[in-house]
Design goal:
- The protein is an alpha/beta fold and 310 residues long.
- The protein has twelve helices and eight strands.
- Strands 1-2-3-4-5-6-7-8 form an eight-stranded parallel beta barrel, surrounded by six helices.
- Helix 3 links the parallel strand 3 and strand 4.
- Helix 10 packs across helix 11.
- NADP nicotinamide-adenine-dinucleotide phosphate binds next to strand 8 and helix 11.
Length: 310
């Protein structure tokens, strides 16, 4: 398997598309980027769909001029953003490369399952026989869909290298459905997204201090913040034990489960926390206790673009 860092950093919020609230400009984001690169966190996850190129453009502005082997870019093909032309796949990839001033991506994903076998076929046809083929991944796919994608890629001499799904203490359906096991057995990276449930498991929010209204995440999580206090209290206890902040515990948990968490970062301190989380080694008992508590809450955090992995 290609050697990747233990943690990837996510730039969805950098797209300012209304999911997170607020408006982040390059000036505010620059220190985040610099702190990450100084600490060896150089794997950046983005998508054209994150603000229709906004996230990609900001990231590209920071990468510009750096040696190409000093960073890794993980970008996505979002079917809903593609045209209906026969050249839609090539058009999208080449438009994204131009937007980011790159000649290749390090990882490239099919973002979701909308007409996915068709788009995976198109992706495979595009990269077949080319130099500089990125690691190819699929996102928001269930186990049957993952296997199907791998078959399509194999028939073009390629292979599936990564899966990216929602995976957190509150949503372990990728584990329950055998996806995690399949990935581990087949040398496929499993990237977990929304490990912090967009901040709801960071220790920063509770029913007295909800997420600012007017964002998609506030709509999703504010109604369950009271229930989440039980889990957040347990996370805080472990954070005290390990001398870290609450947000580091879900990240350490995701690493302990053999996954590569993508942490959405909107402040330089989030990067510092992510770096520290790599040194927290939770015991099996602690991991199990957190999962038991999370399960007891009966909260469904599956969002509109995804599904339970069965
Ligand atoms: N493939 C897909 O369909 C898909 C879907 C979702 C996400 N993703 C990827 O996964 C990445 C992560 O997901 P996400 O950004 O939605 O959610 P997330 O990582 O669960 O949460 C990110 C939010 O948590 C807060 N946070 C992060 N680190 C913190 C820390 N150390 N202490 C306190 N708060 C902290 C920040 O919000 P505040 O500080 O503002 O509270 C940040 O915006 C995305 O950026 C994207 O790259 C992919």
């Amino acid at each position: 398997m290609t050697n990747l860092p233990k943690i990837a950093l996510g730039a969805w919020a950098w797209g300012n598309d209304g999911t997170f609230g607020g408006n982040l400009g390059a000036e505010a984001l620059r220190p985040i980027f610099d702190t990450a690169m100084e600490n060896g966190l150089n794997l950046w996850d983005t998508a054209y769909a994150y603000g229709m190129g906004t996230s990609e453009k900001v990231l590209a502005g920071f990468l510009n001029g750096l040696p190409r082997d000093s960073y890794l870019v993980s970008d996505k093909f979002t079917p809903q953003c593609a045209s209906d032309k026969p050249t839609a796949m090539a058009d999208m990839i080449e438009m994204q490369l131009e937007l980011m001033n790159l000649d290749r991506f390090d990882i490239y994903w099919i973002h979701n399952v909308w007409n996915a076998p068709h788009w995976t076929q198109e992706l495979a046809k595009y990269f077949e026989g080319k130099d500089n083929v990125p690691l190819i991944g699929v996102s928001n796919h269930n186990l049957a869909e993952i296997k199907q994608a791998d078959e399509i890629l194999k028939s073009h001499g390629l292979k599936l290298s990564a899966v990216q799904n929602h995976y957190s203490l509150l949503n372990r359906s990728s584990e329950d459905s055998g996806i995690l096991k399949y990935c581990h057995e087949n040398g496929i990276y499993f990237f977990s997204y929304m490990v912090l449930e967009q901040g709801a498991l960071s220790g920063k929010y509770d029913s007295m201090h909800p997420m600012p209204e007017g964002s998609a995440r506030a709509q999703a999580y504010n109604p369950v913040l009271d229930k989440l206090e039980v889990l957040n209290t347990k996370l805080k206890k472990l954070a005290v034990k390990y001398g870290v902040d609450t947000a580091q515990i879900p990240v350490a948990w995701a690493i302990a489960k053999g996954t590569l968490p993508i942490i959405g970062v909107t402040k330089a301190s989030h990067v510092d926390d992510a770096v520290k989380a790599m040194n927290v080694n939770l015991t099996e008992e602690e991991t199990a206790e957190l999962e038991k508590t999370a399960d007891s809450l009966g909260i469904n955090v599956i969002r509109f673009w995804e599904k339970e992995m069965k």
